[in-house]
Design a protein that fits this description.
- The complex is a heterodimer of chains A (284) and B (249).
- Chain A is mainly α and 284 residues long.
- Chain A has helices at residues 2-23, 33-37, 51-81, 86-100, 104-122, 125-134, 139-145, 151-179, 182-190, 195-210, 212-225, 237-248, 251-282, and strands at residues 38-41, 46-49.
- In chain A, strands 1-2 form a two-stranded antiparallel ribbon.
- In chain B, strand 4 and strand 5 form a beta hairpin.
- Chain B is globular and about 50 Å long.
- The chains are: A mainly alpha (284), B alpha/beta (249).
- Chain A binds chain B through residues 181, 183-184, 186-194, 197, 201-202, 205-206, 209, 283-284, and chain B through 54-56, 79-80, 82-83, 85-87, 89, 91, 93-97, 106-107, 110-111, 139, 141, 152, 155-156, 159.
């Protein structure tokens, strides 16, 4: 049975290959790809990241910041979903349902044009970022945020992505909170703990521990979703690949390389999370 | 005991779950330092009653005053009350993500605003009192049921409350662990000073420590008597039946 499956798979790959080679008359030029990942800078005399690697770095930055923001927003949202106050609960529910039932691309365009633009203008982020970009010693800033001239688009990307993912993180947190037994809350009440203390010391630590696996999943899908923000010109991996394809026409090589990058990032993360989960099982 | 002030004073309490009446016109009082054991068949409202005493359940009618504070739904003083009323649960309800020592100190630190050092010293004293000082750094899941319940008792003791409520503290335990928990409770009762209300089926324990026995059935208090009379000459038929069933085994 396994061999039959493998044979079918091999056949399929063969057909695709044949179509590309034969019908499309595609000329493979794998040799140009490494240069677009990392290249030798003759003037500075060092290796510098080129398009693809720059994209990877931006993707990691965006995903990291968006994850942190989404986690914070998501915990607030999850707590609000379990609140006693009906208005608070309804508000959280509305936010969640709106975001969950609209395709991410649409959400991202709406947020980008209506919200991010407003925010960026309101706080004068653009002017502020340009000032920093002009300074000499902006290494720290560049390390964290990349090219400061692109800072506004990075902020928009992070905010948009975080808002979108926070809805899902919120649902996960809610499930975690509700899985903490009623007895735990009663015990905390019985020693006279205040509501915020019950949440902070008793409910949330247990809830968050329980939701590590689905949360890890959500962050991995956040990395994949981050490709959507290429649509609002955040210069992450997908955006850079589009640029690369436009200038070299190495369609398959570029996209396959990009796919490999995404796979490596996501797969190594899921491996890492799998390791992290183990100790939490023991201490429970 | 009649000269002592009342710690718990309930008059005409009613409690409904939907249409089902869990408590019917309960009149009940506990004086300071008094040790009361409530018994009765399951579903008779014993747990509901003592859960009312620290506001985990809210009565629907009647008046309940505990430690001078009136208890009612949404009372702003409920937290103040709970600091004076300790509770030990059937299912222990220890915090599984905290060590034994942290379980004992979180209340004193967060609620009583004690320093960490003071709270820990105190906690170790009480762990000794429940005979498990060596388990301080373990997690609850690493302890046996009897040990967990003793930690739960110590957790309530650490709050240094004036009243202790026990909600069937030995019902969830394996038979061989019941005694170690009862021993601790007897020790507490005999050291005096603390007001105790205990829901239990452990009649040996009741006979040993109770100042007053209360028998409940179908949401009503059927009989209240000192233990000697309660065990030798119960007045009501239902109480006689119950005692026969429970003492035969």
């Amino acid at each position: 049975m396994d061999y039959a499956l493998l044979a079918v798979l091999a056949l399929l790959i063969g057909i695709v290959w044949f179509r590309i080679e034969g019908a499309l008359n595609y000329k493979w030029r794998w040799e140009i790809i490494p240069n677009y990942i990392i290249r030798w800078h003759p003037e500075k005399e060092t290796w510098v990241a080129n398009l693809l690697l720059q994209g990877v770095i931006t993707t990691i930055r965006v995903s990291l910041y968006a994850s942190i923001l989404a986690l914070i927003l998501g915990v607030i949202l999850g707590v609000a979903r379990c609140a006693n106050n009906l208005a608070v609960r309804m508000l959280a529910r509305t936010y969640l349902e709106v975001l969950r039932n609209i395709p991410p691309v649409v959400v991202i365009f709406i947020f980008f044009f209506f919200l991010s633009e407003q925010l960026v203008t309101a706080f004068n982020i653009e002017g502020w970022a340009r000032t920093i970009a002009r300074q000499e010693d902006n290494d720290v800033w560049e390390f964290f945020f990349g090219d400061m001239r692109r800072f506004p688009s990075l902020v928009s990307g992070v905010v948009v992505l975080a808002l979108f993912e926070s809805a899902f993180v919120g649902e996960i947190v809610r499930a975690g909170i509700q899985s903490v037994g009623k007895g735990q809350i009663e015990a905390a009440q019985s020693i006279g703990m205040s509501k915020p203390d019950q949440l902070r010391f008793i409910v949330l630590p247990q809830a968050l521990k329980k939701v590590v696996p689905p949360m890890a999943n959500q962050f991995i899908s956040l990395i994949k979703d981050s490709s959507i923000i290429s649509l609002i010109s955040v210069q992450e991996l997908t955006f850079k690949t589009v640029e690369l394809v436009a200038s070299t026409r190495a369609i398959f090589e570029a996209w396959i390389t990009t796919a490999v990058f995404y796979f490596i990032i996501c797969f190594s993360l899921s491996m890492l999370f799998r390791r992290l989960e183990k100790p939490s099982v023991i201490s429970n | 005991m009649s000269t002592q002030p009342l710690m718990i004073d309930a008059s005409n309490l009613d409690k409904f779950y939907g249409k089902f009446q869990a408590l019917k016109n309960i009149n009940f009082s506990v004086a300071q330092g008094e040790r009361v054991v409530i018994c009765g068949p399951s579903g008779s409202g014993k747990s509901t009653l003592i859960r009312c005493f620290n506001g985990l359940e809210n009565h629907n009618a009647g008046k309940l005053v505990v430690d001078g504070i009136e208890v009612y739904e949404g009372s702003p003083e409920i937290r103040k009350l709970r600091q004076e009323v300790g509770m030990v649960f059937q299912q222990f309800n220890l915090f599984p993500h905290l060590t034994v020592l942290e379980n004992l100190t979180i209340g004193p630190i967060r609620v009583r605003k004690k320093s960490k050092q003071e709270a820990e010293e105190n906690a170790r004293t009480y762990l000794e009192r429940v005979h498990i000082p060596e388990q301080a750094d373990k997690y609850p899941s690493q302890l046996s049921g009897g040990q967990q319940q003793r930690v739960a008792i110590a957790r309530s003791l650490c709050m240094e409350t004036r009243i202790m409520l026990f909600d069937e503290p030995t019902s969830a335990l394996d038979p061989e662990m019941i005694n170690e928990v009862l021993e601790v409770m007897v020790d507490l009762a005999e050291s005096g000073g603390m007001t105790m209300v205990c829901v239990t089926h452990e009649m040996g324990f009741a006979r040993k420590v109770a100042d007053k026995m209360v028998f409940m059935d179908e949401g009503e208090i059927i009989e209240t008597a000192p233990p000697e009379r309660f065990f030798t000459a119960p007045e009501t038929e239902r109480c006689q039946e119950f005692l026969q069933q429970i003492l035969v085994h």
